[in-house]
Amino acid sequence: MADHGGPNVLVAGASGYAGALAARLVDRHPRFELAAITSRSDAGRRLDELYPHHRVPLVMDAFDVEHHGHVDAAIVAYPHGAAAPVVQELHDRGVKVVDLSADFRLTDPEVYAEWYGEHGAPNLFGHAVYGLPELYRDRLAGAHLVAGPGCYPTAAILGLAPLARAGLIADLVIDAKSGVSGAGRAATQATHFVTVDENMKAYKVAAHRHAPEIDQELGRLGAEVRCLFTPHLIPLDQGELVSSYVTPPRAVAQAELDDLFREAYEDEPFVELTSTPPGVRDVRETNYCRIQAVADERTGKLLVFSVIDNLWKGTASQAIQNLNLMFGFDETEGLL
Hints:
Elements (H helix, E strand, L loop, with lengths): L7 E5 L4 H11 L5 E6 L8 H4 L9 E2 L3 H4 L4 E4 L6 H10 L3 E4 L9 H8 L12 E2 L2 H8 L4 E3 L3 H15 L5 E8 L6 H6 L2 H4 L4 E2 L7 H11 L7 E6 L6 E8 L6 H12 L5 E3 L15 E7 L6 E7 L3 H15 L10
Parallel strand pairs: 1-2, 1-4, 2-3, 4-5, 5-7, 6-7, 8-10, 12-13
Antiparallel strand pairs: 8-11, 9-10, 11-14, 13-14
């Protein structure tokens, strides 16, 4: 590892897919210094033994705030519930934190309790900046606590934000498909190959926790709507396609749709607009979101297709984009 002399960063939960990638991206970043990595299940192992392709030659420790709380920043890649107490301990030490769990994404405590149960750091609840730079760039600059969005909400909200701002969402159906890594390392290891190979199925039907997160963020943009959100598991290791079917309150022509999306994203470094349906290979192992928006004259519907790499823009590389903004760096550093 090169000593850049920049902010020291801890990655807590580096043995999971997102945490391991975050450690790799910090380790190769031109400004940040990877100070330490921790794991709840693999303490004592080297990360490049667990994930040789990331080539991070550090040993994972068990998290101890007395030992690990002296860094400038941390990426916490723990599951919901387990993350909040760690975030609290680090925050109390003045550490800037990007949390990749769902613990700080929602702003309504009653909604959180309904979907996740009791919160592990109630005095911090509602204090995080939602970590979608394309919407909250100004608030992320200098932020001390950032809630990394879920992967499905990242793709869905980026695809729908221009319509929400313009008041063009009267009803919304989201059909989402993700590679198996989106379920996390533990769930993926427990899933037999024969159940996912040459197979595709919906899961958590009418009960996925990302639905209220999408509703919340679209509501902030002016679209008071409850989305019908259905995710599907597909036989890929990583990659995500979100297909959104919008009923607008009035007729919308393709030219107007093109203008809305161009105005929203022409200056965004990590959003690409395309006139053809995007595929997940287009954005694999990048921080890009690629979007196509189509006005269907026959039905009057608006169709929006968004693709991301669920482990990159959906989680780990977006965390780096957020860290860049939090420290006043160019948000593209270490990501192009």
